[in-house]
Amino acid sequence: MIIDCHGHYTTAPRALENYRQSQIAALNDPSQAPSLSELKISDDQIRESLENAQLKLQRERGTDLTIFSPRASAMAHHIGNAATSLDWSQVCNDLIHRVCTLYPENFAGVCQLPQSPGVAPSSCIGELERCVTELGFVGCNLNPDPSGGHWTSPPLTDRSWYPLYEKMVELDVPAMVHVSSSCNANFHATGAHYINADTTAFMQFLTSDLFRDFPTLKFVIPHGGGAVPYHWGRYRGLAQDLKRPPLNELLLNNVFFDTCVYHLPGIELLLTVIPIDNILFASEMVGAVRGIDPETGHYFDDTKRYVDAVSWLSDPDRHKIYEGNTRRVYSRLERRIPTKVSPQQQTSAQARR
Amino acid sequence: MIIDCHGHYTTAPRALENYRQSQIAALNDPSQAPSLSELKISDDQIRESLENAQLKLQRERGTDLTIFSPRASAMAHHIGNAATSLDWSQVCNDLIHRVCTLYPENFAGVCQLPQSPGVAPSSCIGELERCVTELGFVGCNLNPDPSGGHWTSPPLTDRSWYPLYEKMVELDVPAMVHVSSSCNANFHATGAHYINADTTAFMQFLTSDLFRDFPTLKFVIPHGGGAVPYHWGRYRGLAQDLKRPPLNELLLNNVFFDTCVYHLPGIELLLTVIPIDNILFASEMVGAVRGIDPETGHYFDDTKRYVDAVSWLSDPDRHKIYEGNTRRVYSRLERRIPTKVSPQQQTSAQARR
Fold first, then answer.
1. CB count, 10 Å around CB of B287?
2. What pLDDT, in 10s, does the model give residues A30-55?
3. What ipTM describes this predicted complex?
4. Contacting B residues, span 197-216, partner chain A, CB-CB under 8 Å
């Protein structure tokens, strides 16, 4: 089984975007406020939005299950206030739930959190709990910069995050560290802000004792870990200069990297320097880069091709990247889609009994 | 000859730091204002500060010349105002000039610019011109975020930068894109802010027509180009999706990467994906990472070892990285330290006459 741990509902029916536009318009003119009853999306529209996109690509590329969350760039926590964010998060998460209900074998849900700049992260606990316990979601996306590129909130290691982390630990769900769109002209969203946030979060973790306080807290750093694997020597050296424990002790029980790196040399580097146990397969399709690489004739974001092309990867290691690690990190996945046991494994298990 | 294009005077005599502290104290209490006559640094103190640091490491590692600039983390353009920055920049640049005068074969100067948040970059033209025409400097360091981690200035592609770029083109000097310390708790300076700035600048260049307006303007992106080479597929794909020209046409005549990547797999990736003509040897010693890698027994920042270890690199390509490219980008270097012609080359040149 091949699990893609990083997909967003970037192809949601237009009605969702219209709802959001009304919501934003109502920030200055409450008469524009949309009502949920206006947000009409049929099951067929959902099917249509996926059949020729994520589902088609799953089939073509040979992946089975996508851990699926609302469109990251549309979270836009910087717009409006906490009430705006809660309403928008619920609408988006409910739609993800419908996707996962329609295609229970293809998608498992991860929720958007109703973060808002200047508002304590504990405000997200209710929606996280609802999504996990009522909707069967297996994780959340956590925005390290709800200001959208101004970085006005405290680092992820600040104690204001602790109540949310306590709930994550209690529910046994990981967070993918994922910013949203940028409203700072310096940062292109997918080309700079996303990657910078990944790098930033890692260095916040490196300089803190967060995982001493939460030994079972888990974060996935997407986009191949930002700049971190490329500068792995720098990070090992900084940890040493700062008198921190070695990185494997300090954070590799808690921090994982996905494979959203869109060329073979990058994937080879990732698989060379980062322990295999810390790498989760992902493509972020349909996402940041949608074209075909003229150098290969294949989609840039068809990351399975790159992982498959790494000839020195052993079968057990490949299995970890494609399924095992992701099941370990997103541990609630097992309740939704139990690990398939092969006939050989069944036989040997029976023999052991 | 081996030229290291990226070194800062991180070991300057303590008197420099004391001067700065007085300058900062005077922001609130003008009676504390330091006078230049108080800043007493003897030639011997300068020699002492370098002999057991940069010069020793040059000898040990087998490098010849370092392109040398004031300590990047101490530029701190966010402190005080334009007058503060000008005074501090002149003091720092003058000290670099003394270094280069004492050791003309070992150091060539690059200047700090007197940037200040909210102040037009044209305010830096005078100091740039002074350093290049009077002190013989060969380039400048340009801070894409003079706010120190709040990113409140316009992108590097904004027209407010153009007067400075015109002067750079006129003087034929490149800029290394280099932020300073971070006063935003989210960003560790050398572990996040530096790398993020590199990535950010590249994406600003990718989305603009800056190099159509300035075909001969040159930037060096340090720290191995931030996250860019690791995500080279992402950047090629983003350029394509955004209907930009291919990266080699769009910016590879103008943008160069240094080799400050502190492990062999990272250097191998850099040399694999980025055209050799765009790579400049550098170590940033004595800089961000000062320890010895327990995995190799050598300094993390001894980047020459990594470049030397890339067995598939041809001698002509190695020469480009170690000297040729740097002479092309920092073209005024030739006036200070002419290319050494080997006896063979001399003989064949005489034969051609």
1. 20
2. 888 898 888 999 999 999 999 999 99
3. 0.96
4. 199-200, 202-204, 206-207
